[in-house]
Specification:
Blueprint lengths: L7 E4 L4 H12 L4 E5 L6 H12 L3 E5 L5 H9 L3 E4 L6 H6 L1 H22 L5 E6 L12 E4 L2 E4 L19 H20 L3 E6 L2 E2 L11 H10 L4 E4 L5 E3 L1 E2 H13 L1 H4 L3 E4 L6 E3 H12 L5 E4 L8 E2 L4 H7 L7 H16 L14
Parallel strand pairs: 1-2, 1-4, 2-3, 4-5, 5-8, 8-13, 9-12, 10-15, 11-16
Antiparallel strand pairs: 6-7, 11-14
Helix pairs in contact: 1-2, 1-8, 3-5, 5-6, 7-10, 7-12, 10-12
Length: about 350
C-alpha cells in the first residue's frame, strides 16, 4: 500500500455510501479522489457537500467506470481503491440488463485490471450485495410471526453466513455476483489485496431513496410528503438494517486491516438485532414523522427475498466491528436529516428532489 500522502480512490464517491466514506476518510486526514459518473439523483448535491466540507482534500473526477482512459490514471496514483460505482437497482437491471452488466461486471473487471497493471500494491475493497444469495427462501421456508416472517430452519438463527451457496437471481444479482467473484479471484490468482463486503440495507443521512433502491429513506420521504406507499408483497418480508455510520466504520476497518483479511468476503448488515420487517419499519417511521402513510399492495417483484438477515459474526470476529446504532435511533437520525434538508414545510415541492 502506498504512503498516506497518496489519495484513496472512492469510485461512486458521490453516491450515498460513497460520500459518507469519502467524508470519513477526509475527516481523519486522508486525501480522496472521488470518481463519479453523476448518473444518479443526489450525486451532484453530495459532491457540493463534500467540497464545502473538505475543499482541496477532495478531488472529484467526473467519469464513468466504463472509461479506462480516465480510470487508469486515477487508479495509478491511489493508495487504495474503495469500489462502489455500480448500477444499484434490481428493477433497472430487468429493463436494461446489458447496461447493468457493463457497469457492474465489466466495469469492476476493468477496475481490477487497472489495479493489476498500474498499481498492484493498492488494496481494493468492493461493495457487493446480499442479492448474490438469490431468493434464498421461498414462502414455504418461512413462517408468519406477527408482522414479520421468520425462517423455519434453525440453521439461520444467526442469519445467512458467507458459506451459503451463491444463487444469482435477476440480472442485478448476476452482474454483482460476477464482480464479487472476480474481486475475490484477483486476490487468489494475481495476489492483489482485495476484500468483498456483501451489504444489506444500508440507510441514513445523504440517502436520496426511491422505490427501487434505498427503501427506508423512500418510506421516510413519502411519509413526510404524506404520499402513499406501495408495498411489493405483503410487508412481512424482513431485512437487517445498518446505519451508514456503522457501515462506514466497517469499511474503514477492512481498509486499515486489508493485509489481514485480504481475499476474504464478509456479510455487512445490521444482523439479527437490527432485523425489521417492512410493516415494522413503517411503524417506527410513524413514531419519527407523526405521519401514517396510506399503503397499497402489489405483487412480489422478481428475486425479492421474504427473509434476509446477515450473519455478521465473521466480520465481527475478524475486526472487532459491531453495529452500534439501533434501527429506531437510526430512523430518527434519517428523519431529522431529511427534515433539515428539505425544510420544515410539508408536503411541498422540496421533497421532489429526493426522488431519483
Amino acid at each position: 500500500m502506498k504512503t498516506s500522502t497518496a489519495p484513496v480512490l472512492v469510485t461512486g464517491g458521490c453516491g450515498f455510501i460513497g460520500c459518507n466514506i469519502a467524508d470519513a476518510l477526509a475527516l481523519r486526514g486522508n486525501r480522496v479522489i472521488v470518481y463519479e459518473s453523476f448518473a444518479r439523483s443526489g450525486s451532484e448535491e453530495n459532491a457540493h457537500w463534500l467540497k464545502a466540507r473538505h475543499g482541496d482534500a477532495i478531488e472529484i473526477v467526473r467519469a464513468d467506470i466504463r472509461d479506462p482512459e480516465k480510470l487508469e490514471p486515477a487508479v495509478a496514483r491511489a493508495s487504495a481503491v474503495i469500489h462502489l460505482a455500480a448500477q444499484v437497482a434490481v428493477t433497472t437491471s430487468l429493463d436494461h440488463p446489458l447496461d447493468d452488466f457493463a457497469i457492474n461486471a465489466a466495469g469492476t473487471l476493468s477496475m481490477l485490471e487497472c489495479v493489476r497493471l498500474a498499481n498492484a500494491q493498492a488494496p481494493v475493497v468492493f461493495a457487493s450485495t446480499n442479492k448474490v444469495y438469490g431468493k434464498l427462501l421461498t414462502q414455504e421456508d418461512v413462517r408468519r410471526d406477527g408482522n414479520r416472517y421468520a425462517p423455519l430452519s434453525d440453521a439461520l438463527a444467526a442469519g445467512v453466513n458467507e458459506s451459503s451457496p451463491l444463487d444469482f437471481y435477476s440480472p442485478y444479482g448476476c452482474s454483482k455476483g460476477t464482480a464479487d467473484q472476480y474481486v475475490r479471484d484477483y486476490s487468489r490468482i494475481y495476489g492483489l489485496s482485495t476484500a468483498v463486503l456483501r451489504m444489506s440495507c444500508i440507510y441514513g443521512p445523504r440517502q436520496f431513496g426511491n422505490e427501487d433502491q434505498g427503501w427506508l429513506a423512500h418510506f421516510v420521504i413519502q411519509a413526510l410528503r404524506r404520499n402513499p406507499i406501495t408495498i411489493y408483497g405483503d410487508g412481512c418480508q424482513v431485512r437487517d438494517a445498518l446505519h451508514v455510520s456503522d457501515a462506514v466504520n466497517a469499511w474503514l476497518a477492512v481498509l486499515d486491516n486489508v493485509e489481514t483479511v485480504k481475499g476474504r468476503i464478509f456479510n455487512l448488515g445490521g444482523g439479527i438485532r437490527n432485523a425489521v420487517s417492512l410493516l415494522e419499519a413503517l411503524g417506527l417511521i410513524f413514531e419519527v414523522t407523526g405521519e401514517r402513510p396510506q399503503l397499497s399492495f402489489a405483487d412480489w417483484r422478481p428475486g425479492d427475498q421474504p427473509w434476509y438477515v446477515s450473519d455478521i459474526r465473521a466480520i465481527s470476529s475478524a475486526l472487532g466491528w459491531r453495529p452500534k446504532v439501533a434501527v429506531a435511533d437510526g430512523l430518527r437520525d434519517l428523519g431529522q436529516w431529511l427534515t433539515l434538508r428539505f425544510g420544515e414545510s410539508r408536503p411541498g415541492e422540496g421533497f421532489e428532489e429526493a426522488r431519483a
